[in-house]
Design goal:
This protein has 222 residues and is of the alpha/beta class. It has one domain (16-220): 3-Layer(aba) Sandwich (Rossmann fold), CATH 3.40.50. The protein contains 8 helices and 7 strands, in the order H-H-E-H-E-H-E-H-E-H-E-H-H-E-E. It has a 7-stranded mixed sheet with strand order 3-2-1-4-5-7-6, with helices on both faces. It starts with 15 loop residues before the first helix and ends in a 16-residue tail after the last strand.
Length: 222
């Protein structure tokens, strides 16, 4: 394996220095989806249970440290898992983890832009995680990636800090991310609205692969 080029705001690869600096697993971590990964997984598990949606397959497009994916696997117990990340360090780390040994999981080193989705489009995943990924991609790649995500999934659980979110993190949490592009809420909504419908906190529903949605209330579909 080798480090893959990225389109992050400063153009640097997501190497060991990046993970050590930005995503350390410790008591002082403020990374959403790391320190509170269990809460995210429980929230979505209960939401899908309420809506009587079965989640049998999960993808993670940019799994990073693998903390969030591990918690979702623990909650949902999927029979099929696909996970990608551009970081050599993250690939090496996850394939050594004991919790993946008995799973039907495909792990690939790839950026989300370069990931070949042909084999997934034929049988879309029930749920795809895409946590803190899109803020590192250049503007021109955002809508194509949303389209790709919508083609391979029924639901996407996604987190993307906006410029306003980063302003809050700097002032209140003393957190900065020099790798990230800071863009407006409207930028992201415009990019995904042809491909997804927002239905709940962090949750998007594919316009291509969900024919009869259980999320019916018009007020919360946008």
């Amino acid at each position: 394996m080798k480090p893959l080029s990225t389109g992050s705001a400063n153009g640097l690869p997501f190497n060991k220095d990046y993970w050590d600096d930005m995503y350390a697993e410790d008591d002082e971590s403020v990374i959403d989806g790391v320190f509170n990964a269990e809460g995210h997984a429980k929230y979505l598990f209960e939401l899908f249970k309420l809506m009587e949606i079965n989640i049998r397959s999960i993808g993670d497009m940019g799994f990073g440290l693998g903390v969030l994916l591990k918690e979702f696997v623990r909650q949902f117990k999927p029979s099929r898992i696909i996970a990608i990340d551009p970081s050599e360090e993250c690939i090496t780390r996850i394939i050594k983890e004991k919790w993946i040994k008995s799973l039907n999981i495909a792990i690939k080193q790839s950026t989300i832009e370069e990931f070949d989705i042909k084999f997934i489009k034929e049988k879309p995943l029930d749920l795809v995680l895409c946590n803190s990924v899109l803020q590192y991609l250049p503007n021109k790649n955002i809508e194509p990636v949303f389209e790709k995500l919508a083609l391979i999934s029924k639901y996407v659980y996604i987190a993307i800090p906006t410029a306003k979110d980063y302003e809050y993190m700097r002032s209140e949490l003393n957190f900065t991310d020099p790798y990230a592009y800071e863009r407006s809420r409207n930028f992201y909504i415009k990019a995904w609205k042809k491909h997804f419908i927002a239905i709940s906190h962090n949750l998007l529903e594919s316009r291509y692969n969900v024919k009869e949605s259980p999320f019916l209330y018009e007020l919360f579909r946008y």
